[in-house]
Amino acid sequence: MTAGRARRAYARVMIVPMVMSAAMWLVVAALVARQYWPAFLLVIVPVLAIAASTPVGERCQAVFMWARAPRLHQRHTLGPVAQVLLEHGVESAHLTLLVGPSRGIAVTAVGRRIIVVSRGLIEDVRLGHLSTGAAAAVVAHEVGVMRAGLTRSDPAIRVLLAPWKVWLTFIALMWAVASALIPRWLMLTCLLMNAGAGIWLGATQDPAMFVSTACWAVVLWTWWTFRSWSRARHRIGDHYLVQTGLARVYAQLLVKSFTDDYTRDRAVRLQHPEMQGEQVVVPGEAPRANPALSTTAR
Q1: How many CB atoms within 10 Å of residue 278?
Q2: 95, 117, 136, 165: least CB-packed within 10 angstroms?
Q3: Model-level pTM?
């Protein structure tokens, strides 16, 4: 998996959200700005998107993610993790580390400069549930994605896709309520019957009936593009782990945490990169990075 293929996957995943967001931005502009809606769409929204890509804009997005500067005890816990990253040549110049509220093990890149580490990851390292090597591998995976340029436009994209995010949150809430009341297999059966009825009525009665089937085709396309993008992102991060010599410890973490076939295949590729034609890096021979990982949020 190359960065070019990952960017193409990213471009595909943006098609439906961009189209829907453009339509919803048009409605918002007509309601808010009224006769000035062209200026709202052509000036205000692009300016906000450009501003979001600046260092201040990235920091503002981190604030919206409830991320903050690490406290003293968190910096103390992350010190050995930063040392492992340094020893494996993970470049961390100009990166700022923030702490998010999630209780799970998660690391998120924001734009080109900010890495948000979950509170749960820090606590697991402190309690000894997660080794410093495994924590460093999780951080390095996201750094690899960032270094490939795949998160560079995320802040601007989040602004442009704000209506899509709101709509998607509403649909997710409706789906959660329906899932609590109706068995999932029954919901999926009804959806398939709806799509099949649309095809039959469109072919025998009125071609307009194809609309429902077309909508479900768009939903399936969107789901496929999101899955393809997620897997392309994984491959880029995995490749960076192989380059830095942290692949095996990350593979062990995946095997310990997940049981699905896709993740197990990832673990095998990480443990045996020579099967994919990757260059194996010996940890002791990895190049050293000069700057340490910034945990001061400055």
Answers
A1: 17
A2: 165
A3: 0.80
Give the CA diameter of the chain.
70
As given in the structure block, the two tokens for residue 276 are 């994919």
- DSSP, res 69: P
Rounded to an integer, what is the distance from CA 260 to the centroid of its chain?
A: 19
- Written as six digits, the tokens of 27 are 């409605």
Rounded-to-integer distance, Cα 295 and Cα 77, Å: 11
Residue with tokens 């410890």, as numbered in its chain:
249
Helices (H), 119-161: 119-127, 132-147, 154-160
Over the chain (298 residues), what is each successive 10-residue block's mean pLDDT? 81 89 84 73 83 86 88 93 91 84 91 92 94 94 91 88 88 85 82 78 75 81 91 93 92 91 92 67 44 43
Q: At what angle do helices 3-13 and 15-32 cross, to 10 degrees?
A: 40
